[in-house]
Amino acid sequence: MTRTVIVLAAGEGKRMKSDLPKMLHPLLGRSLVGHVLTAAAPLGAQRTLAVVGNRADQVTAHLSEIAPDVSTALQAQQNGTGHAVRIAIEALGELDGTVVVLNGDVPLLRAQTLQDLVEAHESAGAAATVLGASVPDPTGLGRLVRDADGGLSRIVEERDATPEQRAIREINAGIYAFDAAALRTALAKLTTDNDQGEEYLTDVFELFVTQGSPVRVHLAGDAAETLGCNDRAELASLRALLRDRINLDLMRSGVTIVDPATTWVDATVTVERDALLEPNVQLRGATSVATGAVIGPDVTLIDTVVGEQAQVVRAHAVQAEIGPNVSVGPYAYLRPGARIGRKGKVGTFVEIKNASLGEGTKVPHLTYVGDATIGEQTNIGAGNLFANYSGSTKSHTVIGSHVKTSCDTTFVAPVRIGDGAYTAAGSVIDKDVPAGALAVARAHQRNIEGWVRRSRPGSAAAEAAERAEQATSEEG
Ligand code: UD1
Ligand code: CA
Question: Which H or E run includes 328?
């Protein structure tokens, strides 16, 4: 059966009080509309069209980024959901089979629920099927009005409802399947005879019932799936619900999550079994965590790949690659292009940017590595700095394998250090170091004897020095 998906995304989302269109607000890795499109993807629709209106340019640009196959139709004035679908149908032209209509702001909808709804609709040969849910608080939503036999007789908006209808707890989720031909005919008959003076998509159900065409209700097992998002408070509730769902799925697939309430994993992230997530962990975007890795506490990973058995503690990483058995943190910052080879170490107060570290290479303490290639089994001493930026250009540092750089070495790029070389503490290295050499690049130490006694007479330091001198002469 031919399937077409229409996503309604023209509304204003006034209560979000935002410069960003409501549909574009992020929720654990995808925009609201991105979640809806993801849920619809397994339907295998031949065509997907989004109706845009408010801030259409922004919404269209976003859609072309996340779903280039989705076309758009412009609803210049938001005259209601029925009007929006009519515009979509006109833009789509020739149409048969099933038309699935989705509100753009129901991000918790599961692909399986939508699939079940569409299959039930198609196998029953219904004219229209609506996703319904029983909710404790139906305020603001359309109610499903049933006839004496339990069949759907109409959908009524709260503002148009009688007090008895308002008491109904079965609501319209704003997710539907229609027979294309029946929908086209019914949309032509919609009026604006309601409290908002809008064309209501929901009115087609009553039209179908009146003409004797079969309509159905498909109930969502989990009412949370049908929750819409109207303001930031609802956005936060949806986020918490989605967090719980993602965490539950992960735990069921063999991931240990110590504190699910403080573990925020985007829908786009993969975590393999036997990974362990400690409290206060955020995994975002295209992040993946391999088996046996231990992440946290207090870690944020964005678009970062973590290898097997790696350990990451109190760290922030963006577009980084953390190899297998690597140890990161506590207190490390990996920036884009940081690539840490197998069994490497990035320790405390270390920042790494656009640099690859070979297998077993360690950067344990207080160091900035920027724009560098470092070989295998090299040890970068405490407090090293890679001076990669001249103020106008960035240059690269290349350090070989089995190199040992001593504390407080500064590399002034571009510079190359050969395999097995050493540097002396406090060296500023601005010339290449051949393999196996010790580079010493610091001023020689000179002690000016008696300086404190002469220049700071009577000070505590001078007195301490005098006592020490006396003790030495008495010993001698
Ligand atoms: C609609 C349903 C209501 C249901 C609720 C579920 C109608 C008349 N009512 O309510 O029964 O319980 O959804 O959330 O359909 N939109 C457009 N163009 C418009 C109007 C809306 O594209 O002219 C889009 C919005 O961007 C949104 C969706 O349609 O994605 C629903 O609009 P919204 O105003 O949130 O829903 P209601 O009309 O209040
Ligand atoms: Ca409305």
Answer: strand 327-328
User: What pTM was computed for the model?
Assistant: 0.94
Q: Reduced to 3 states, what is the DSSP secondary structure of residue 97?
A: coil
Give the nearest ligand 1 atom to 51 CA: 22
Cβ–Cβ under 8 Å, residues 360 and 340 = no
pLDDT digits (tens, 9 = 90+) for 54-106: 999 999 999 999 999 999 999 999 999 999 999 999 999 999 999 999 999 99
Determine whether 441 is exposed, middle or buried from the number of CB atoms within 10 Å of its CB (0-12, 13-18, 19+): middle
DSSP string, 134-149: E-S--TTSPEEEE-TT
CB-based contact 129:117 (threshold 8 Å): yes
Hunting for tokens 């629709």 — which residue is that? 45
Cα 222–chain centre separation = 24
Measured distance between the N- and C-terminal CA atoms of the chain, rounded to whole angstroms = 103
Q: Is 365 a catalytic residue?
A: yes
| Digit-coded pLDDT (tens) for 243-287 | 999 999 999 999 999 999 999 999 999 999 999 999 999 999 999
In order of start, what are the domains of the chain with their CATH numbers?
3-226 (3.90.550.10), 255-439 (2.160.10.10)
C-alpha 91 – ligand 2 centre gap (Å): 22
Q: Are 166 and 143 in contact (CB under 8 A)?
A: yes
3-state secondary structure of 375: coil
CB atoms within 10 A of CB 86: 22
Q: Is the CB of 85 under 6 A from ligand 1?
A: no
Given the structure tokens 């909710």, which residue do they identify?
A: 135
